[in-house]
Specification:
Layout: H1 7-57, E1 65-70, H2 71-75, H3 84-90, H4 95-98, E2 102-108, E3 111-118
């Protein structure tokens, strides 16, 4: 009797491996997408926290006031921990485009709050009636 595998047995193994590889590839791409979404949401939260810290450190806010600066201000503040390359990798908005997004921080009764990401209105002020996301 001959030792070895028949052509049919080899083809069956190759087909099974192909099916497993295809299923694994779909799962892997879903995991990658979920990771990117989570990383981007963390970036947005980190930007808001740095914005609050920026205003506290510079004593810029007074009760019931609101101030807005663009994302680039907080990126260059040095406390964010993201490089521009990392920002571009995580965010669906390019860093150069992100300069058009503003984070507004307000204080009320001693509590700081950072709002979402806003664009400028026709008057040149951050339009706080609409929030955008850096993630898509």
């Amino acid at each position: 009797m001959k030792k070895g595998f028949t052509l049919v047995e080899l083809l069956a193994v190759i087909i099974i491996l192909g099916i497993l590889a295809a299923a694994g590839g779909v799962t892997y791409s879903k995991v990658q997408q979920k990771h990117k979404e989570t990383a981007c949401k963390n970036l947005e939260d980190d930007l808001k926290n740095v914005a609050i810290e920026y205003y506290q450190d510079n004593n810029l806010l007074h009760d019931k006031s609101i101030y807005c600066h663009n994302v680039a201000t907080f990126m260059s503040y040095g406390k964010l921990g993201y490089t521009i390359e990392e920002f571009n990798k995580v965010s669906s908005v390019n860093y150069n485009t992100a300069k058009n997004y503003f984070i507004c921080v307000s204080i009320s009764n001693g509590i700081y709050k950072a709002s979402g990401f806003h664009k400028l209105n026709s008057s040149g002020y951050a339009d706080t009636s609409t929030s955008y996301s850096l993630c898509n």
